[in-house]
Q: What sequence folds into this?
C-alpha cells in the first residue's frame, strides 16, 4: 500500500512528523518522533485532537454522527486503558 500524502499545509522545513501507525496482522506498529515534545500532557492534547479527526472521518464513512463516532472511540479507548474494570 502506498504512503498517505503529506497534507498541503505542512511546511517540510519547520513542521515535524509525530507518529506513523500501521496495522500489521491485526496489531499496531508505531514509529514516533520523541524529539518533538517532552511534556506528556502534550500527547494528551494530540490524542484528543486525533479522536476528533477520526470521529469525523469515521462519520463520513459510516453515516453515523460525529458525536456517536467520538463516543464509540472514547469508549473503546477507555476499555483498552482499563481492561480489568
A:
Amino acid at each position: 500500500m502506498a504512503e498517505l500524502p503529506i497534507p498541503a499545509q505542512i511546511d517540510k522545513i519547520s513542521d515535524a512528523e509525530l507518529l506513523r501507525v500501521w496495522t500489521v496482522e491485526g496489531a499496531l506498529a508505531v514509529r514516533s518522533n520523541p524529539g518533538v515534545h517532552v511534556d506528556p500532557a502534550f500527547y494528551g492534547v494530540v490524542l484528543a485532537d486525533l479522536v476528533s479527526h477520526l470521529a469525523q472521518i469515521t462519520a463520513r464513512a459510516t453515516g453515523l454522527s460525529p458525536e456517536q463516532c467520538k463516543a464509540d472511540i472514547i469508549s473503546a479507548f477507555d476499555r483498552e486503558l482499563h481492561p480489568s474494570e
About this structure: The chain has one domain: 19-81. The CA atoms of residues 19 and 52 lie 17 Å apart.
